[in-house]
Design brief:
alpha/beta, binds S-adenosylmethionine, seven-stranded mixed beta sheet, single chain
Length: 279
């Protein structure tokens, strides 16, 4: 069984044993999902819609609507849609504010198509994909990771999303070998270890802090740098503290905003958003 989403097409097709048994389409947040009658009520619709949302990169916080023409109401309700009358359904999710959402919003605010962006910790490629979308086909995105597995995961994700970036297996201290000064619109660091991968490649301040300094020196005026840092376990807390100290010592050349979520319980990740001032 596979879900095929054609490049540039907003339709995903569900195939079972090489035969099409369903289709889903999401245009401007409007969902249409169709399953061949003989395959209904077996979970295929749920599978198709989940895959379609994922493959189209539609975030969990996006508002979706649907029109039920027959008995699809319970199907949409399973996805958190509410009936809003006359067969119409709507799903609204409150956006979660966390370190990642803060840095993503910052990128969206400051990056425009054609920009040059660096993902200094490519990991599984989620951030690289977002940067590619913001940079558009005329932009340039570089993604670095010290770990082979991460480089492979990022390349695979980009391929699935029909996006391209220069993916480099190297440590982020070596950024300057790949980007000339005054070329960079954004550098992003999402510290920690590869989710789902080996924990041996945890980012360490001895490497990440100099890399951030180098990235700052490569930024164009008006360029941005963001950091997400995780607390917990000695390693994470040590790195988070080093990042906060680093952010505190940045001079007046930079506009710096730090969110530590101090009033939240547990050890939530922190976000640091830096913008190099326009001279
Ligand atoms: N941005 C990623 C994503 O969207 O999936 C998540 C990044 S993950 C939290 C941190 C990554 O940093 C890991 O994949 C790890 O291999 C990488 N890393 C650790 N030390 C590094 C270094 N010195 N240079 C580059 N990457 C490094």
């Amino acid at each position: 069984m596979q879900v095929l989403c054609e490049k540039g097409n907003d339709i995903c097709v569900l195939e079972k044993d090489g035969v099409e048994i369903g289709r889903a389409r999401i245009v401007n947040g409007k969902v249409e999902c169709w399953i061949a009658p003989e395959w209904r009520r077996k979970g295929y619709g749920t599978f198709l819609l989940k895959k379609t949302l994922h493959q189209m990169g539609i975030s969990q916080s996006e508002t979706l609507t649907a029109q039920a023409y027959g008995g699809e109401g319970p199907f949409y309700k399973k996805f958190g849609f509410q009936a809003v009358g006359e067969g119409r359904y709507r799903r609204e999710r409150k956006k979660q504010v966390n370190a990642l959402s803060i840095v993503h919003d910052f990128w969206e605010k400051h990056l425009t198509p054609g920009c040059t962006a660096l993902d200094a910790t490519a990991g599984n490629g989620h951030d690289t994909v977002l940067l590619c979308r913001l940079a558009g086909p005329t932009g340039r995105v570089l993604a670095m990771d010290i770990q082979k597995q991460a480089v492979e995961n990022t390349r695979e994700r980009l391929q699935r999303e029909h996006l391209s970036a220069q993916v480099i297996q190297d440590s982020h201290e070596n950024i300057a070998q790949y980007i000339a000064p005054n070329q960079l619109d954004a550098a992003v660091f999402n510290l920690g270890y590869l989710p789902g991968g080996a924990h041996d490649f945890f980012t360490v301040p001895a490497r990440s802090i100099p890399a951030m300094d180098t990235a700052l020196s490569l930024l164009k005026p008006g360029g941005i740098l963001t950091v997400c840092a995780y607390s917990g376990k000695l390693q994470g807390t040590h790195e988070r503290d080093a990042v906060l100290e680093w952010a505190n010592r940045l001079g007046s050349e930079y506009d710096v905003k730090t969110e530590t979520f101090e009033t939240r319980s547990g050890l939530p990740p922190i976000a640091v958003c830096v913008r190099k001032n326009l001279r």
